[in-house]
Q: What sequence folds into this?
């Protein structure tokens, strides 16, 4: 029997857990505490929900966040009353800003035990401010039929609001009166004979977000005279910006971007934290070195765009943001959520649709719109077997000899929908603007490769470049904030490895990094975490998850004894107080720290050893591969080289 009729609290909590299980909940993360005992017992007894106990609330909340990032399903998060709930706050902020579904259940004292120093009672109603998608306080538990109906339907609504219209956190504050433990109540036990669970839960079915929640195509894509699509087709100086993204179906996402790029003959400026760089075969006009290219002011002026299609969040690059702010192209932002993705406040139109939906409409419209420019064909073959697009004949085919043949030893056709892709055939670039981008990308990429391959000592920038080439296919990698995300943007090389990047770029904090990475890796393919020393130290309680963790995580620890990102900022010139108050070196022996938690640790002191350790990943456990580096030397290398890679072009 899924419902526990021992007393009112057990009925209430078990109805809550059973409702969620029937809606599709698979995982609940629970922190220990007394007031939440009814919830803990109910979830622990539900055998269809994986229930994971974690001591530290902040670590638990980020672990739940990581699981939700990987699964694209809401994860339940439960704690007792008092300051325990406050420790969830950073993860809830990140969930809101990065659009990750979480269900937060905070147990609370009943109203009569609030504001009277009853102990472990704080004001928990709306404790998370405006960050939840929705929040409410449940009624005091009752075993009456009407109140159980209310509970069930409130939980259904909470589940829905965690996913629609935009994924994010939902908070329910749940007061409980004593008894908090399942001591029998004869009056409640008698109700069991009157309760019909199949009738009570009738009609409850799993409710999931994902593709089913893709909104319809916006009216701007109507194909009429003066439409958005015609403006795009007429523009020969357009760019597509593929920003930070963690799509559920990465191949289909990258295929859609590739189709739009090839249909318009526009380059794709792809952030290193986007999967686009890891599906390079689907995006022949991929530009990965834009940050370095734009440091050449003369080139940056020549590459001024008229239109920019921004997909999701802007990339991390400050150079790109400053360039867009200066050049002010007309910008179209593609994302189905209700969020504002325009920090530059430019000439921006938000198209509230997915890039996959946009690609479908673009292919359809191009079959209907007559040629717009004399001598240029806009033909795209009709949809065949669910695929999209085809061969758009270019006006000219005089591609620069510096651009390698697109069919040299590899297929450039986008896979059909049945394989998660969007069908289509490559076109050739037909304008000088695109050729300039592609020629520059090839030259800068060659310069970077030559410079980095000549580095023999352990240096931070080389780590990201190597990882993009040596990881096993489809490896999930969680990339920490501060310098790691920036080095990935600078140096992550386009590849065909289908690596899956994960990040906490909603609020860009270092909170809970280890715990989030463990959540991503839990019951997943063997995974990687790339982090600096301070970020790892900020969340060492995450190692307490070790005994409940199922899977493998390799932590690549760049230990430069301090905050390397601050070395790149103007404040580094002011010491004191720079070293003590900004760099904040900690002098931690990580071998001893790992031994405390029973985590494997190894110092990496040459690149061959590094490659060998990552060529094959273990299937279980946690290990730390520590790369000691010199913080100031790493910063100086970047300062000396970043502006030079495109200097002589």
A:
């Amino acid at each position: 029997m899924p419902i526990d009729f021992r007393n009112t609290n057990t009925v209430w909590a078990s109805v809550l857990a059973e409702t969620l299980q029937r809606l599709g909940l698979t995982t609940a993360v629970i922190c220990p505490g007394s007031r939440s005992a009814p919830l803990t017992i109910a979830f622990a007894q539900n055998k269809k929900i994986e229930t994971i106990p974690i001591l530290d609330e902040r670590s638990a909340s980020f672990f739940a966040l990581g699981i939700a990032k990987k699964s694209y399903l809401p994860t339940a998060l439960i704690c007792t009353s008092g300051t325990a709930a406050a420790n969830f706050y950073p993860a809830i902020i990140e969930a809101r800003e990065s659009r990750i579904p979480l269900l937060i259940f905070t147990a609370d004292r009943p109203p009569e035990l609030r504001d009277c120093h009853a102990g472990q009672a704080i004001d928990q109603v709306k404790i998370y401010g405006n960050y939840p998608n929705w929040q409410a306080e449940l009624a005091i538990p009752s075993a009456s039929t009407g109140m159980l109906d209310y509970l069930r339907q409130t939980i259904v609504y909470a589940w829905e609001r965690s996913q629609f219209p935009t994924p994010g956190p939902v908070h329910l504050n749940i007061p409980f009166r004593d008894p908090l433990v399942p001591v029998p109540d004869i009056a409640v036990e008698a109700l069991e004979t009157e309760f019909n669970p199949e009738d009570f839960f009738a009609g409850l079915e799993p409710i999931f977000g994902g593709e089913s929640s893709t909104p319809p195509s916006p009216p701007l894509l109507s194909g009429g005279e003066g439409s958005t699509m015609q403006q795009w087709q007429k523009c020969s100086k357009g760019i597509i910006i593929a920003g930070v993204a963690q799509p559920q179906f990465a191949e289909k996402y990258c295929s859609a971007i590739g189709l739009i790029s090839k249909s318009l003959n526009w380059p794709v400026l792809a952030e290193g934290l986007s999967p686009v760089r890891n599906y390079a075969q689907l995006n022949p006009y991929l530009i990965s070195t834009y940050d370095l290219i734009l440091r050449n002011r003369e080139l940056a002026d020549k590459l001024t765009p008229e239109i920019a299609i921004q997909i999701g969040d802007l990339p991390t690059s400050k150079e790109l943001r400053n360039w867009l702010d200066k050049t002010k192209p007309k910008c179209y932002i593609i994302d189905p959520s209700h969020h504002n993705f325009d920090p530059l406040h430019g000439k921006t139109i938000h198209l509230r649709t997915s890039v996959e939906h946009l690609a479908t409409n673009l292919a359809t419209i191009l079959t209907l719109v007559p040629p717009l420019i004399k001598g240029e064909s806009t033909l795209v073959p009709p949809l065949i077997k669910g695929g999209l697009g085809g061969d758009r004949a270019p006006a000219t085919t005089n591609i620069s000899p510096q651009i390698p043949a697109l069919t040299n030893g590899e297929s450039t056709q986008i896979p059909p929908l049945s394989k998660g892709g969007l069908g289509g055939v490559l076109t050739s670039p037909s304008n000088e603007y695109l050729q300039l981008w592609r020629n520059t990308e090839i030259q800068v990429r060659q310069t970077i490769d030559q410079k980095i391959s000549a580095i023999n000592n352990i240096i931070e920038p080389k780590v990201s470049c190597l990882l993009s080439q040596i990881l096993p296919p489809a490896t999930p990698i969680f990339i920490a904030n501060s310098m790691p995300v920036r080095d990935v943007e600078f140096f992550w090389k386009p590849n065909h490895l289908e690596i899956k990047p994960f990040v906490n770029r909603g609020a860009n904090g270092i909170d809970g990094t280890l715990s989030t990475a463990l959540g991503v890796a839990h019951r997943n393919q063997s995974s990687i975490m790339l982090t600096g020393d301070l970020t790892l130290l900020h969340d060492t309680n995450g190692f307490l998850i070790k005994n409940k963790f199922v899977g493998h995580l390799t932590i690549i620890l760049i230990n430069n004894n301090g905050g390397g990102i601050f070395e790149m900022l103007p404040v580094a010139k002011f010491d004191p107080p720079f070293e003590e108050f900004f760099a904040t070196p900690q002098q931690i022996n990580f071998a001893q720290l790992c031994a405390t938690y029973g985590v494997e640790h190894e110092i990496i002191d040459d690149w061959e050893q590094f490659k060998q350790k990552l060529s094959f990943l273990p299937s279980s456990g946690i290990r730390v591969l520590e790369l000691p580096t010199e913080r100031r030397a790493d910063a100086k290398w970047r300062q000396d080289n970043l502006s030079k890679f495109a200097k002589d072009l």
